[in-house]
Amino acid sequence: MQQFHDILACMKYNEKRDYQNNKELNERVLPNLPSFCNAFFVGIEQKTTPLTRLGYARDLEIFFQYLTTQSANFAGRDLFGLEKADLNQITIDDIEQYMAYLTQYEKDKKQHLNGERGKMRKMATLRSFFKYFYRRGDLQENIMTKIDLPKIHEKNIIRLNDDEVNKLINATAKNPRDEMIITLFLLSGIRVSELVGLDYEDIDLANKTFLVTRKGGKQTILHMGEQLHNKFVEYFQTGEFTKGTPLFTKCGHRLSVRAVENIVKKYAQTAAPLKKISPHKLRSTYGTNLYKATGDIYVVADVLGHRDINTTKKHYAAISDDIRIKAADKVKI
C-alpha cells in the first residue's frame, strides 16, 4: 500500500488519474468478466484512454450480468465459463431485450436507470466489442449492425446570458479561488477535468499562456487574454504557489471534479436559479460568445479542443439569430 502511495506522489494529476483508472480496470472490473474479454481490452489499448476502457468494462459487466441471469438463451450459465464461441449464440432478441432491461435494473443491490443517452452509450460499447471480434474472425456475423439504436432527442443547449454572467462573477467576489475558477471557465472554455489538473507551473504569465491536458492526454498551450491574465496575477497574490502546487486546492489537497461542479452549482443558484448550470454549461457559454465574436466555427473548434468539427457545428453553428440578421444584409445585387 505504501508503494502505491509513493508511486502516486510522483505523478502529475493526469498520470495519477490514468494509473488509478487502469488499476480499477485490471483489479476490480476485468475479473468480473469472461476471460476472453481481456483480448478486447488489449486490442483497443493503443486507441483509447484508461477512462474509456474502464467505462467499456463497466458496461460489459452489466451486459454479461444480464445475459447470464435474464436472457432465455444464457440464463443459468456460468459467466466465467463463457467462451468467444458463445458470442455467436447471442441473438438480436437478446440485444433488444437487453436494451429494454437497461431502462431499470439492479446492480450491487442498487437500482439503476437509463434514459436514451445512457442506453446509447452502452450499445456503443457493444458495437465496439462485437466489431472487434468480428474483424478478428471470431464471429460468423456482427449482429450489432442489425440493431436499431435508441433515438436521441436533441437537448436545448443551456448557456448564461451577459446579465447572468455578471451575477455569477459578483457572487464569487469574496472568494478568490472560486472567482478564479468561474473566470477561467468563462474566459477559456476549458473542461472541468482540464481545470482540476492545472498546476502552478502550467501558467506562464510572462507569455500569457497556459498548458492544459486534453482528452486522450494531448497537451495544448492556450493563450489568455488581458482580462484573464490580470485575474491570474490577482489570484497568485492571494496565496503561496510553488512548482508542483495544484492551482485549485482545499486544505492543501487538489480539488476534485465533483468539488468544482459543486462550486459552480452553488453560485449558479444565485445567478441563474432556473437554469441547471454546470462547468460544461460555462464552457458552452464561452463557446457561444467566441462564435458570436468571430463567426468562425473552426476557431471555436480549435480553442475548445473538439476533434470533430461536426461536434462544434452541432452546438454553436445555429445558435445566433443576430448573426443571421447581419448575414441577411451582407449580399446585395
Summarize the structure in words:
With 333 residues, the protein is mainly α. The protein is 53% helix and 7% strand. The longest helix has 20 residues, at 50-69. The mean pLDDT is 90. A hairpin with a 2-residue loop joins strand 6 and strand 7 (253-254). The strands form three sheets. A three-stranded antiparallel sheet has the order 3-4-5, with no helix packed on it. It has helices spanning 2-9, 13-29, 37-43, 50-69, 92-101, 116-135, 162-171, 176-188, 192-196, 226-236, 257-271, 279-294, 297-304, 309-316, 321-328; strands spanning 104-107, 110-113, 203-204, 209-213, 219-223, 249-250, 253-254.
Overview in brief:
The chain is mainly alpha-helical.
